[in-house]
């Protein structure tokens, strides 16, 4: 009897270990699993808070540990303060070399106060790894593509935003000191957290000539009086004192430069483009990412997450570059951007300089115009998300954030006004929105928007070129000559080269080669019915094809001596990957 119990116990243990070994965890099969999400992830994460640098790093390490065949983590360089800028390479390492797969680049949080970009990038890395075994689409995607995810591109600024006193607009940049007011001193008059609560809020003072009043409906909200209405308060800006007694308050803050004006396309100096530094690539963070992008010519699509406004932005950043976006390339952007508007209600597909503002030396232009990469930048969060309806006023003018705060956040979004005795302004009051409200999603909304934005980028990544040799035909000619004709199709909507790339010869052409057969002549078929060919006299065995359009195809033909059966046709494309087939 004892033996029997032991045996059945052993077989139970055996069954359990076996079940754990299988690709799909039993908990994921039914019951608690919600469709589209891993129920039993190896790396446990909660997506209702923002993560600091140590936690971002830890997620990368945990994913590498749990999924060594899917995730690799490297440092692309150091930030100004010496933090590693991590890039996660995510792909199925068991199916082909990653360098030979179309790549998709993602980064988040170049503007450090725009916190959720980092969370979307982290969520994407986590979701891809955790869903590889359960969701067929993700499985195929990681077999065919490689993702390069820089979770936080400005780690110093993010640490500052989290651990130091800030408002929702600081710190937008990194920590490099800069003399903003030209007095020979750096960071000499920073924001001052008067009550030391971590939030830099507004200062107001009672005034008979003031043009501001308290909104009786939402007492933390101030509004500007109009016409002949008498005001009650004057506004004195963000919490601060004149530290260096130069008659200005908060005039030399930490990091007022803009890392998204430091890139090498249409860069302009600071007097034209506010926030630019000394030359394109002044910052170590920018230089590290540029080198990474240039060293990965397989990157065919890219996404850089920002906030605020609910937008899918494409270039150019400046009107004078409009002509560089051909109708052919715009059609690709339209296809992806318009679907995005359906995938994320409240988000709009826009052009940076037309619908937002002019940006010189921006990262999006660097990616799309210097490197020929089809790039979107999503501006995360919009007031549409509050009540699923379009706002009638701008972010700072409407009272929807106050209403949302009252009924859905129970007052957690704002600090009530309180008195303070200021060394220069006397009796004032301080209050207003917390640093992590307005621009950044409230906790319960982070995951849904992360998922929707990830889905948009996965669709974008899916549409990077996929090359297939759809047919190889042989035809006996006179003597021992044989014509070999190969048809190569791109079955996705992104071409191997943007038209801008082709015109400027940014990336090498695609090569279609025939090996294992004596090639006498090689040519591109222009029109088979009308017998139009373009012969390539130099290296006829390797035909250079400048572009294979989205959903388009090319035909190449070789004239060979003798029976070509067993010879190999190979397509090699920097952004379209490699594929080969043998002649039967
Ligand atoms: Ca100064
Ligand atoms: Ca404060
Ligand atoms: Ca000063
Ligand atoms: Ca000052
Ligand atoms: Zn931004």
Overview of this protein structure:
The protein folds into 3 domains: 34-172 and 280-381 and 445-464, Zn peptidases (Aminopeptidase), CATH 3.40.630.10; 177-254 and 392-438, no CATH class; 467-582, Sandwich (Immunoglobulin-like). The longest helix is centred in the first third of the chain and has 20 residues, at 2-21. It has an 8-stranded mixed sheet with strand order 1-2-4-3-9-12-10-11, sandwiched between helices. A 5-stranded antiparallel sheet has the order 15-16-21-18-19, with no helix packed on it. The chain has 14 helices and 23 strands. By secondary structure, it is of the alpha+beta class. It starts with a helix and ends with a strand. It has helices at residues 2-21, 26-29, 53-66, 116-131, 136-144, 155-163, 284-294, 327-343, 352-356, 363-370, 384-387, 400-408, 443-462, 499-504, and strands at residues 71-78, 84-90, 103-108, 146-150, 202-206, 212-214, 222-224, 233-238, 299-307, 311-314, 348-351, 374-380, 414-422, 426-433, 467-476, 481-490, 510-515, 518-527, 532-535, 542-545, 553-561, 568-573, 577-582. Helix 8 (327-343) packs antiparallel against helix 13 (443-462). Residues 193-195, 197, 199-201, 239 line the site of one calcium ion.
């Amino acid at each position: 009897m004892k033996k029997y119990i032991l045996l059945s116990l052993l077989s139970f243990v055996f069954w359990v270990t076996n079940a754990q070994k299988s690709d799909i965890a039993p908990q994921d099969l039914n019951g608690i699993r919600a469709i589209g999400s891993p129920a039993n992830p190896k790396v446990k994460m909660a997506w209702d808070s923002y993560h600091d640098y140590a936690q971002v790093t830890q997620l990368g390490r945990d994913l590498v540990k749990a999924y060594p065949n899917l995730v690799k983590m490297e440092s692309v360089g150091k930030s100004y303060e010496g933090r590693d800028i991590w890039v996660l390479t995510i792909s199925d390492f068991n199916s082909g070399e990653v360098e030979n797969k179309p790549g998709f680049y993602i980064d988040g949080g170049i503007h450090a106060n725009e916190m959720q970009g980092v969370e979307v990038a982290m969520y994407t890395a986590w979701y891809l790894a955790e869903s590889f075994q359960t969701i067929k689409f993700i499985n195929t995607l990681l077999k065919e593509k490689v993702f390069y995810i820089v979770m936080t591109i400005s780690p110093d600024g993010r640490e500052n935003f989290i651990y130091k006193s800030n408002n929702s607009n600081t710190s937008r940049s990194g920590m490099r000191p800069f003399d903003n007011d030209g007095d020979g001193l750096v960071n000499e008059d920073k924001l001052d957290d008067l009550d030391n609560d971590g939030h830099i809020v507004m200062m107001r003072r009672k005034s008979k000539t003031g043009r501001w009043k308290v909104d009786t409906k939402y007492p933390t909200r101030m509004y500007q009086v109009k016409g002949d209405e008498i005001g009650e308060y004057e506004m004195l800006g963000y919490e601060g004192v004149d530290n260096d007694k130069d008659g200005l308050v908060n005039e030399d803050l930490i990091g007022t430069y803009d890392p998204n004006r430091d890139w090498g396309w249409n860069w302009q100096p600071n007097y034209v483009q506010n926030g630019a530094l000394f030359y394109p690539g002044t910052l170590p963070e920018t230089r590290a990412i540029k080198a990474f992008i240039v060293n990965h010519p397989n990157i065919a699509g890219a996404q850089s997450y920002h906030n605020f406004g609910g937008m899918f932005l494409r270039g150019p950043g400046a009107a004078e570059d409009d002509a560089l976006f051909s109708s052919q390339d715009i059609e690709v952007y339209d296809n992806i951007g318009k679907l995005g508007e359906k995938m994320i209600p409240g988000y709009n597909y826009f052009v940076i300089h037309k619908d937002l503002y002019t940006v010189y030396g921006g990262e999006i232009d660097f990616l799309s115009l210097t490197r020929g990469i089809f790039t979107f930048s999503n501006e995360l969060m919009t007031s549409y998300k509050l009540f699923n309806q379009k706002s009638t006023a701008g972010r700072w003018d409407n009272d929807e954030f106050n209403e949302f705060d009252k009924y859905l956040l129970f007052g957690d979004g704002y600090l009530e006004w309180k008195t303070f005795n200021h060394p220069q302004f006397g009796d004032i009051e301080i209050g207003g929105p917390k640093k992590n409200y307005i621009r950044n999603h409230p906790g319960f909304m982070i995951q849904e928007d992360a998922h929707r934005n990830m889905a948009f980028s996965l669709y974008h990544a899916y549409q990077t070129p996929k090359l297939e040799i759809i047919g190889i035909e042989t035809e006996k000619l006179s003597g021992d000559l044989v014509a070999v004709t190969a048809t190569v199709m791109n079955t996705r909507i992104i071409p191997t080269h943007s038209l801008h790339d082709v015109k400027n010869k940014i990336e090498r052409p695609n090569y279609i080669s025939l090996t294992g057969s004596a090639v006498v002549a090689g040519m591109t078929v222009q029109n088979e019915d009308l017998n139009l060919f373009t012969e390539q006299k130099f290296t006829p065995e390797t035909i250079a094809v400048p572009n294979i359009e989205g959903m388009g195809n090319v035909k190449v033909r070789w004239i060979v001596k003798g029976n070509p059966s067993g010879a190999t046709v190979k397509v090699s494309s920097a952004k379209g990957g490699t594929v080969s087939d043998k002649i039967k």
